[in-house]
Amino acid sequence: MAAPPPPSDRRPTPGSDGLPDLPPPPWRRGPGRPRQQLTREAIVTAALRIMGEEGLDAVTMRRVAQALNTGPASLYAHVRDKQDLHELMLDEVFKDVRAPEPDPRRWREQLKEVTLATTQVLLDHPGTAQILMRTLIPTTPGLLVIMDATLGILRAAGFPDHVALRASDALALYSTAYAYEASLWPSGEAGQEEATRRIGEIEDYLDSLPADRLPHLTALRPAMRGGDAVEHFEFALDVFIAGITAYAPPAAEPSGTADRPTTP
């Protein structure tokens, strides 16, 4: 007869009795959710999600760490500080913007295309315009590529370098300011209802103004009700591009262009 197996070999395997495995005691379970691998990309993704759901002011190192189930100190191995995190957020949202190859024959259209694309990114991510306003000089790869593309479009059209620099800077400022103003508009159903009510009160007041005291403002009241924010933005953009056309070299000017002013 064969000898019985040693006691250590006779231990039942989990579930060998047909019953489910027993859960571990609560004091042996890890606290909270299991931690995910902490990377710079994960930190930026969490920060963008918080900004989208709770606003830019909620994006703190402590709040991001909480979202990643870790401590704030662990974030500093990947980002220098909150300002560094903000710049990484900018780079992330702008990384997919594609700039066209400069075409001197289409510089107006290309300038408008790039400006509209960058403005849309800022509108899609409320809070990024505020970050950009606070940034002394953008140095993230995504923004540098856009800046370089804008300068390339203007230089290819023959604009002097200092005109290209000033025009590019003015376009970026207008785009950012527009998106920042849009981000201040009340969000949510309650906020929009309150804004609509307030606008109605303002319009009623403007309609009541005396025409003899404010003849032009009252005469243009019907025109004030037309169009939307996007239409107004594109109109101002077209006006800007028409303005810098005055500084374009003859080859880049449309036929019939008036004499150019002195270069600023």
Automatic annotation (TrEMBL):
GO annotation, biological process: negative regulation of DNA-templated transcription
Region: Disordered, residue numbers: 1-37
InterPro entries for this protein: Homeodomain-like_sf, HTH-type_TetR-like_transc_reg, HTH_TetR, Repressor_TetR_C, Tet_transcr_reg_TetR-rel_C_sf
Entry keywords, A to Z: DNA-binding, Transcription, Transcription regulation
Residue ranges of domain HTH tetR-type in the record: 37-97
Transport keyword on record: no
Coiled-coil ranges from the UniProt annotation: none
DNA-binding region extent: 60-79
Protein name listed in UniProt: AcrR family transcriptional regulator
Native source species: Allostreptomyces psammosilenae
